[in-house]
């Protein structure tokens, strides 16, 4: 699951924008997991791995798109409100910004950690500014696995945010 050198392609950013315009749930057994406060969360079971893929669609009425994108990327702020963050930081490696994130899990489960590339682009589609953030697991020798912590090696995320036409944001995340 390692991105090509140089990070993500322009096509990957455009695909995230396209899904914001027309969510792709057809053709697979996506299950609606929860729908509340204008947010819908779907999941799809991968039969081979037993893991789930998630898609989130919704509108945040009082949060402008630029602010939502900034908050999403702000790891220091995340530490303030997310009680499950044990450790999270960014580090420059080979010209790329790499995120290390360890998540606390309750006993008897083991903590999980992630090492991933993350990039943000602002694109324009049909006259609308769209903020796109892509993330994908990577392997870097600077981030050795820790004993007792399970390394998540198949992490990937696409997030696209645009204005809802008022004061809020329309969002899609996978």
From TrEMBL:
<keyword id="KW-0963">Cytoplasm</keyword>
<dbReference type="Pfam" id="PF01852">
    <property type="entry name" value="START"/>
</dbReference>
<dbReference type="GO" id="GO:0008525">
    <property type="term" value="F:phosphatidylcholine transporter activity"/>
</dbReference>
<dbReference type="GO" id="GO:0005829">
    <property type="term" value="C:cytosol"/>
</dbReference>
<dbReference type="GO" id="GO:0031210">
    <property type="term" value="F:phosphatidylcholine binding"/>
</dbReference>
<keyword id="KW-0813">Transport</keyword>
<dbReference type="InterPro" id="IPR051213">
    <property type="entry name" value="START_lipid_transfer"/>
</dbReference>
<keyword id="KW-0597">Phosphoprotein</keyword>
<protein>
    <recommendedName>
        <fullName>Phosphatidylcholine transfer protein</fullName>
    </recommendedName>
</protein>
<dbReference type="InterPro" id="IPR002913">
    <property type="entry name" value="START_lipid-bd_dom"/>
</dbReference>
<feature type="domain" description="START">
    <location>
        <begin position="30"/>
        <end position="174"/>
    </location>
</feature>
<dbReference type="InterPro" id="IPR023393">
    <property type="entry name" value="START-like_dom_sf"/>
</dbReference>
<comment type="subunit">
    <text>Interacts with ACOT13/THEM2.</text>
</comment>
<keyword id="KW-0445">Lipid transport</keyword>
<keyword id="KW-0446">Lipid-binding</keyword>
<keyword id="KW-0007">Acetylation</keyword>
